[in-house]
Design goal:
The complex is a heterodimer. Helices cover 56% and strands 0% of the residues of chain A. By secondary structure, chain A is mainly α. Chain B is an all-alpha fold. The chains are: A mainly alpha, B mainly alpha.
């Protein structure tokens, strides 16, 4: 794994968690524009980190398997429960 | 519909196995107040929910619980990795090992298998949401009990994260219950089951979903 991959994954985890949390808040406060704007900002941060991670470190979603890798590297570990990433 | 994302909601990196702790924490996988029962409860209850806020909360919390189920399984997996049969037998995890080796299987800390009777889907949004609130508190208490016997900071970290989410979910379910009650007979909340006795009227705040009229646009 390349050097900045753990750092990128950490950014993905943080932005994704912010989205997970604000998602539930927005469900019960659908008119809170500030919360909605925060959700969108975190979604942007997550998209950027996901793109960077998946092109350099491997797919997190099956549809992001890079054809340049020449093989179906979706199956390549470590898998999330193995503690290696 | 769900798609798999190849990461945990919060990292789990445990380097020191501890079979006794694995047995305790397994309860939050398949125990009476565990994450599987939580997810199945919310994702089952949502079909009887007449109001949009409630449908969204049940769907989104039920989805997050699937990610918690995966974290708990990862904790158990890492706590039992590389142990010898002798170490397992000496720890109290022996009976589990005989039936499941080091596989992950849903049971309570005391060995009782997961059962759909761990949760209800009553077809009454008020009853169901009160059960959701109780479920979040019961899970939070279980995490408190776990944290009293955990000393390894690598185990504490994800358990604390999960405990915190129970508190947030409790808050959101309370807000969902409030929106349901806002639609009911103010003199007798329980006079009618809005999922059964009389078809729920459209949610005033989401009746015009495209225009989001509730937001004053």
């Amino acid at each position: 794994m390349k050097e900045n991959c753990p750092q990128l994954l950490n950014m993905i985890d943080q932005a994704s968690f912010a989205m997970d949390d604000v998602l539930l808040y927005l469900d019960t406060h659908p008119c809170d524009r500030q919360a909605f704007a925060y959700y969108q900002a975190m979604a942007r941060a997550r998209r950027e980190a996901m793109d960077a991670y998946q092109s350099a470190c491997g797919p997190l979603m099956a549809d992001k398997v890079n054809s340049a890798s020449g093989c179906w590297n979706w199956i390549q570990g470590p898998w999330p429960w193995e503690g290696g990433r | 519909m769900w798609r798999y994302e190849k990461r945990l909601q919060h990292p789990v990196k445990i380097t020191t196995p501890n079979p006794q702790l694995a047995q305790f924490i397994a309860s939050q996988y398949g125990g009476p107040d565990g994450e599987i029962a939580a997810s199945m409860r919310y994702l089952s209850q949502r079909y009887a929910m007449p109001y949009d806020v409630g449908k969204a909360v049940l769907t989104d919390v039920g989805t997050e619980e699937l990610a918690h189920m995966e974290m708990i399984a990862a904790i158990i997996h890492q706590l039992t990795k590389g142990l010898t049969a002798e170490q397992i037998a000496a720890s109290g995890l022996g009976p589990y090992y005989i039936d499941h080796t080091n596989g992950i299987w849903p049971q309570a800390a005391g060995g009782v298998p997961l059962n759909a009777c761990e949760f209800q889907s009553k077809g009454d949004p008020i009853t169901d949401l009160f059960e959701c609130l109780a479920a979040e508190q019961k899970a939070r208490t279980t995490y408190d009990n776990i944290l009293r016997v955990v000393t390894d900071p690598e185990v504490c970290d994800p358990i604390r994260f999960l405990r915190e989410r129970e508190i947030v979910h409790f808050q959101r379910f309370g807000e969902a219950l409030r929106t349901v009650q806002d639609h009911l007979d103010s003199r007798n909340f329980y006079a009618l089951n809005p999922a059964f006795d009389n078809p729920a009227k459209p949610n005033p705040e989401t009746a015009n979903a495209a225009g989001c009229s509730v937001c004053g646009d």
